[in-house]
Design brief:
D-Maltodextrin-Binding Protein, domain 2, Dipeptide-binding Protein, domain 3, 3 domains, five-stranded mixed β-sheet, five-stranded antiparallel β-sheet, 17 helices, disordered N terminus, SBP_5_dom, SBP_5_CS, signal, Peptide/Ni-bd
Length: 563
């Protein structure tokens, strides 16, 4: 970057003379970098959201909101780089001292652990903590216990009897060498990715073998949760036992405190940021404010592409969506351009009619449910939709659309209600708090027919959308941990997905070709309505510097400074 331009930009952003001068000086020496870090270290980052999102337990919570926090609260054996840009997809050793030794057959991983790492309660990390943490994934019925970790030796017994999970022969502690060995039943090209997400967080061996709920569990990372009230706030402070071992894996962070306040509306959150009372809002700014903000405060907006989609899962085991014709009908009837407008316009979203998002591994443009089927969305086909509903004999049945209480979700839900009404159904919308909506729509006991949900990639692999959201191993009736919200389980497609994952261990390009075909096969069965692919829109205060966006964790909160 041109240093003169950088200096002017620093003044314009209001970061003060020190930041501007720093931009003029090439940061070549470690001493300079340390001095610059020290100048920005400290202060309180103030962030806001309409609602909290459920349990604090990192091995259970599956929301983008809390994963963003877990990045600086917990560590796994491996981690995605805590940096912005394309490098954020890269893996680095975290609690592992180095990259693992992998056997020639790809089924055995040996990890040497770092020394002198302590949990926030002062306990020193030991191999027993790693073994117990992997056992706990099954004991607490983590949403990914089968889909991510079902390939570990002994996992089959743990899935059948979670309470008595031992993973015997699967995860083995070596105290003498401060190491842990993990054995798989078959090679898994994505295994290191799966070890890098919060569900594989390493917790103390004595962590409760049940959902931690509102009680924080100690972690090894730079921060710890000091207090939590899901109806009011979450406060993160520095972990007094943390010493930075890898800036790429777990940076020290700049703020001394991160205060997350829940409540209010998106509108009030925007006003708080513009008035200097908050630094960032989790929820996207209301669409009607974006045009104004792009003119009045363009330097405070950050727009980033996302590997994500908004979709409407249909319960394939409940009427009327247990009839594939009804599911196909809703796909034909939805006007995805209208949904993009509801979300804020083409600058913030693009219509999609398949599972895998654009520019993602395995994506090939294909659109079945449009007026002119082919590679792209064009327009709804209402005549085809009405014909399918008529053939199904389900016209007049009651359908409830369950949304969360954000403006965007309510808007999408209301639109789907209108489409269902046009198709002849007696449709209503049920809006519930965002802190429970995601778990509520997963639990089959709640008999949710249709809902509005979102999915953000855990890591860059097609299986993370298709297998996780529509694989048989992700469907767990009667639990809050059934991320296959549609309850879709097609034996033939499931076998194809497992074959594609196995192929990925030796030929990823060929596997991606298979994933593209699987994407089409899933959409033919239509367990969900793809709506649009969003872009991330962050509104930040003028106090925030060093904004970095990770493809995995989104805005890296603790990498930014407020002084």
């Amino acid at each position: 970057m041109n240093t003169d331009v950088s200096a002017r930009y620093a003044f314009r952003k209001g970061w003060g003379r020190a930041a501007a001068v720093a931009a003029l000086i090439p940061a070549l020496s470690p001493a300079f970098a340390q001095a610059q870090d020290a100048a920005h270290r400290g202060g309180t980052m103030k962030i806001v959201a309409v609602a909290s999102e459920g349990t604090l337990d990192p091995q259970i919570n599956y929301t983008s909101r809390y994963w963003q926090l877990y990045a600086f609260l917990y560590d796994g054996l491996m981690s995605f780089k805590k940096v912005g840009g394309p490098e954020s997809n890269e893996l680095v050793p975290d609690l592992a001292a180095e990259m693992p030794t992998v056997s020639d057959d790809g089924k055995t991983y040996t990890f040497k652990l770092r020394k002198d790492v302590k949990f926030s309660n002062g306990k020193e990390l030991a191999p027993e903590d790693v073994v117990a943490s992997f056992q706990r994934i099954f004991k607490v019925f983590s949403p990914t216990s089968g889909s991510f970790y079902g390939g570990i030796v002994g996992a089959d017994k743990c899935l059948a009897d979670p309470a008595n999970c031992t993973l015997e022969g699967g995860v083995i502690a070596d105290d003498a060498n401060n190491a842990v060995t993990i054995n798989l039943v078959a090679p898994d090209a994505e295994f290191l990715y799966k070890l890098s997400v919060p569900h594989a967080s390493i917790l103390p061996a004595d962590a409760p073998a049940k959902d931690g709920g509102n009680t924080p569990i100690p972690g090894t990372a730079a921060y710890m949760i000091q207090s939590y009230d899901p109806n009011a706030s979450l406060v993160m402070v520095r972990n007094p036992h943390f010493k930075e071992w890898s800036k790429e894996a777990q940076p020290e962070g700049y703020p001394d405190e991160i205060v997350y306040t829940f409540g209010g509306t998106e509108e009030s959150a925007v006003n708080a940021i513009m008035n200097g009372q908050a630094d960032w809002m989790f929820d996207p700014p209301p669409g009607d404010r974006l045009a104004e903000l792009s003119v009045s405060a363009p330097d405070q907006l950050r727009v980033s592409p996302l590997a994500a989609w908004w979709y409407a899962p249909m319960n394939t085991n409940l009427a009327p969506f247990n009839d594939v014709r009804v599911r196909q009908a809703l796909n034909y009837a939805v006007d995805r351009d209208a949904l993009v407008s509801i979300f804020g316009g083409p600058a913030l979203a693009q219509p999609v009619c398949q599972v895998l998002p654009p520019d993602f591994p395995g994506h090939e443009d294909q659109c079945l449910y449009t007026l002119d089927p082919g590679t792209e969305w064009s327009a709804p086909d209402m005549d085809k939709a009405l014909q399918l509903v008529e053939e199904s004999g389900t016209k007049g049945q009651k359908v409830t659309v369950v949304t969360d209480d954000t403006a965007s979700s309510r808007g999408v839900g209301t639109y789907l209600q209108s489409v269902l009404s046009d198709l002849g159904y007696d449709a209503t919308v049920q809006t519930i708090s965002g802190d429970i909506q995601f778990t509520y729509i997963q639990n089959t006991n709640n008999n949710v027919q249709l809902s509005v949900s979102q999915w953000y990639a855990d890591y860059p692999a097609a299986s993370n959308f298709l297998n996780v959201l529509f694989g048989c191993d992700s469907f767990h009736p009667g639990t809050d941990a059934s991320v296959n919200i549609s309850g879709f389980c097609d034996a033939e497609i499931d076998a194809q997905m497992k074959a594609a994952m196995a192929l990925g261990a030796t030929d990823q390009d060929a596997a991606n070709g298979d994933w593209a075909k699987i994407d089409g096969a899933v959409m033919e069965k239509a367990p969900a309505v793809p709506l649009f692919t969003p872009k991330d829109v962050d509104l930040i205060s003028t106090r925030v510097g060093n904004y970095e966006f990770s493809n995995v964790f989104h805005w890296l909160i603790a990498n930014s400074w407020v002084q």
